[in-house]
Amino acid sequence: MPLAQRKDTPAPAPPPRARAKTKFGAAATRTAIPAANGSLYAGRAKIQPQLVHGTYRRIKWMILAVALGIYYLVPFLRWHRGEGEPTQAVLLDLDKGRFYFFSVELWPQDVTYVMGLLILAALILFLKNAVAGRVWCGYLCPQTVWTDLFLAVERLIEGDRRARLKLDAAPWSMEKIALRTMKHSIWLLIAWWTGGAWVLYFADAPTLVGKLATYQAPPAAYVAILTLTATTYLLAGHMREQVCTYMCPWPRIQAALTDEHAYNILYREARGEPRMSAKQATALRAAGQPAGDCVDCFACVTACPAGIDIRDGLQMDCIQCGLCIDACDTVMDRLGRPAGLIGYDTEANRRSRAAGGGTVSRIVRPRTILYATLVAGIGSFMLYSLVTRSFTAFSVLHDRNPLFVTLSDGGIRNGYTIRLSNKRPGERHYALTVEGLAGARIEVVGGTPGDMPVPSDSTQEFRVLLFAPAGLPTDPSIPLTFTLTDPATGESIRAQDHFKAPAP
């Protein structure tokens, strides 16, 4: 039960507490709250976290500002790519099938880079978990960032935890209606702009903003904005910690990937127990008896956005945000006791201290080396592939029916469809040559082999005929190498196919 309720209202008899074991054997205490209808979750109370100040709260504010600044402002960044090219720095152009990221342009054929980025993201997440637990969840996850923003708005309008609890319990009045209306209006405004910013990544941002304001934007844009507005408002404003606990799979995956050397937020039991008031601890220490530093003030519980008690041990609900550390350090500072009763620590350290040993730190170990090596290897390969990739795509498709045509003079003709993709801004002119069949003649329908124009950022198909004089083919299938060269840049690219002829 929250601290404010413990002081302001008579506390009912607490339900029985069941001792459980965490993954590493630490005792954990959980309180079952049975609902009237017998459901485990129907009686779940709304969590109203207390605002705290400290190192981790400042880090979270800075990350929130940077992350939201990037999300909302990046669509308006400009990047010059050349005449006729889009000027938005980051743009996913669904009509043309292009993804622009500053100077990088990806085509649908470059989907391997997207797959590589997803693999890298997963490996980086594994590496973070192996080093510092759920640091992604506590600081960088969009659910955490937007929930922090919504909570900041709620505190600004309704006050801090005690004021919000009092407002929740108060009967409906004009003041309560006004406060709630203002809060939900701002929440909806933030959610609406979140959805609006998302669609700006799919079209020129200033142009789309004008069309949205004058109701000339495509219907899909309005549907996307309404959908993201609803999900942001519900997930960040109402569901909050329930998203992390019940909807997100990462807590369960993380529990299987962590080990005793990963840094997680832990309560240092050896120093904190037995819990008692500051006066009792002073009296016992004066008498030479043991007394813990924890004064059972519940500051860590009321500051937790997930509503858990970190003193019960490592729990799946904990997102490792560090706010309980700030809350506890504030109390320790007021009492004149050293900070760090709750902090980032490892289970190996906890066990070592319990046994009278020293600090055990193994950030560099086989699993972190493996993850770091995979991240560096895959990242380097992708970067090298991106830097050295060709800006021309070239494919050759042999006619299927007929495979060849015998001419009246005894010569053999083969037909091919050549597809060229120009991934650079500006029109390019290519020259085509064929190796593997000496004496053969190339003919480009509607053009010439020495000048095959392809417009900027587009794909062009050419019909190519290859003629072999009578008696020249000596094999029914002769390997050929088609070479495409850009005289302006010297870039060349090759493709393989065959010349078909009747069996001798």
From TrEMBL:
The UniProt record lists the keyword Iron-sulfur: yes
A Pfam family annotated for this UniProt entry: Fer4_5
Domain (4Fe-4S ferredoxin-type): residue spans on this chain: 284-313
Keyword ATP-binding: no
Start and end residues of each stretch annotated as Disordered: 1-20
TM regions (residue ranges): 61-79, 111-127, 186-203, 215-236, 369-387
Keywords in alphabetical order: 4Fe-4S, Electron transport, Iron, Iron-sulfur, Membrane, Metal-binding, Transmembrane, Transmembrane helix, Transport
Descriptive protein name: Cytochrome c oxidase accessory protein CcoG
Species of origin: Methylobacterium komagatae
The gene coding this protein: ccoG
